[in-house]
Each structure stands twice: as structure tokens, then as C-alpha cells.
Design a protein that fits this description.
Layout lengths: L4 H5 L7 H4 L22 H10 L9 H9 L10 E5 L2 E5 L9 H10 L14 H13 L5 H11 L3 H50 L4 H5 L6 E4 L6 E4 L14 H7 L19 H8 L7
Antiparallel strand pairs: 1-2, 3-4
Helix pairs in contact: 7-8
This protein binds a DNA duplex through strand 2, helix 5 and helix 8.
Amino acid sequence: MLIDKDQDLGLSLGLSSSEAGCSLQLNLMPSSSPPPTALCLTQSEQRTVLASQGIDVNRAPMAEIEIEEDAGASSPNSTVSTENYGGKRRYYAGGGEEIDGDRACSRGVSDEEDGDGSRKKLRLSKDQAAILEESFKENNTLNPKQKLALANKLNLRPRQVEVWFQNRRARTKLKQTEVDCEFLKLCCENLTEENRRLQKEVQELRSLKLSPPFFMHMTPPTTLTMCPSCERIAVSNSTAPPPPPPAKLPRSDMHQLFPRPVRPPVAAIPGWAPIVLRSSFLNATAKPQRS
DNA sequence: GACGTAACAGCCGTTACATCA
DNA sequence: ATTGATGTAACGGCTGTTACG
């Protein structure tokens, strides 16, 4: 299954920081990347050379593949064992060889960064991306066994799978943040509007000489009550104020009195698509009916 | 039991590269 | 052909967790 680019991550809320009223700060300070230290060929150089020789640069090195195939989780004869060793999770192939060194290895590799500081970036194929995406839908984190199996399946290095999942989680989080920001922005707009309306109402009440009979026919003023626990606002239209919650009400009970507005989760929406945000928000934050 | 340490996984911020308009 | 914007693979650094001595 191929995932169209637009289908995949195509959600764009078009939310600028100014629009959202958010103060988003960017750290523009240059990072202090350590200078390359090794004289040998880097991964990227190796891949460049391999690519120039017509070799699939995305394919994991043969030695690594052999180890991974030995350790393949999908293999019924898998000899991988996961040992919880002193809180340090170690994963061994059959011969007792430690096989999950890919993280350390890959980090070590970076120390062998080439002299010109360049690194080749490998574009994952659509098929690879689709399979990773499917896997992510099932589980947004991988254990080493799954990681190895997936890497074998996709002809990638385990580190590449790990990085992909890491970046994918980051993208999910970013999308959720955008949704939250949009949600809060709309909350703010509604509250501003409500505040304006209430101020107008106060002004009218002050300026009017109200006769009691006329007053009796008025709709009751909106009563706002703040939860002393979490400071959420509850709206009541009753003329009689709501009974104050007990001073030591448990937080869970308190929240029944002050229900949290529904926040649209990215994860709950098929694919990426938190497109339903606006309608769900409007339902969740609809102004109290006055009647 | 408290503490220091090692190994690990995940997150964050960033960089570098590929692609496209 | 060039360029700026965008997406994303990959990295280093940091932090939290876990178990051991």
C-alpha cells in the first residue's frame, strides 16, 4: 500500500503564531556539532561509493543483515533473547553476541563523520514509508525485536527504523500541539466574546432603571463559578447559585461539576486528519443556551 | 535503605539534504 | 538554471528509568 504524500502528512492547519496568539520561540543558536574525528570513510561516503557502483544504498551492510537475520523476530527459530540485565536491556543473538548495538554503533558512526561535514540523506521509498506507517499505527514505539524485524523486512538498518519512529513520534506530537493551539485559540475567542457580552449586559443593567416586574421577565444572568481545585469555569443559568462544592471535594468529583472541554486528539482521528477540530470544538465550547 | 553508577530508551533541538513550486 | 520553502533523515545532547554494587 502506498501512501500519498498528501494523504500521509498532508494536514496543514495554516496556523501562524500570530494567528494563534501563541508565543512560539525558536532557538536559532547554532548547535555545536562536534568536529569529525575519524579518518576512515563515513557511512555517507561509503553509501555514496556504493551508490556509484549501483548498489542499493539503503540496504543494510551484509554483516549486519546476517546478524539481524539470525535474530529475526519473525523467525520461528529465532535465537534472540531479551535479557533484563540490571535494568540495562541487552539483546543477544544465539552465540551470546550482543546485537542491539545499533544505537551505540550509529552514534559511534557519527563520530566518523567525514571531513567535509556532509552526510548523504537517504530517501525512504514509498513502500518502506508505507510499511513503517502501518507499523506505527499499530505501535508508536518498537522494542528491539520489532525494530530488528522491521529493519530486516525493509532492508534498513535498525538505527534507521529507530530514527524514523522517533521522528514520526515528533511529528505526531507537533500535530497535536497545533491542534491544541487551535483549540485554545478558539477557546480564547469564545471567552473574549462571552466577556464582551457580559460586560455589555452589566452596563445595560447599570444604566437601566429596572422595575421588578420587568426584571422578573428577564432571563437570569449567567453565573460563572470557578472550580477551586483546578480553576475551571462552570456556567450556570439558574437564578439560584449552584451549591458550593465541599471544601475537600476530591478532584475527580470536582471535575464532575466542572467538566473539562473536549480536546480533539490527533490520535483519535483517522490518519492525520484533525480536520474535525472546528466542529468538535464548537460542540465542546458552545455558548450556554439562555432560555 | 540511600547513593552512585552504568546501560539503555526516548525526547528535543538542530542540521543537512532532497524535493518541489 | 536558480532559489526559497518545505519535508524529513539523521545527529548530539539531555533526561528518566532500571538494576546493580
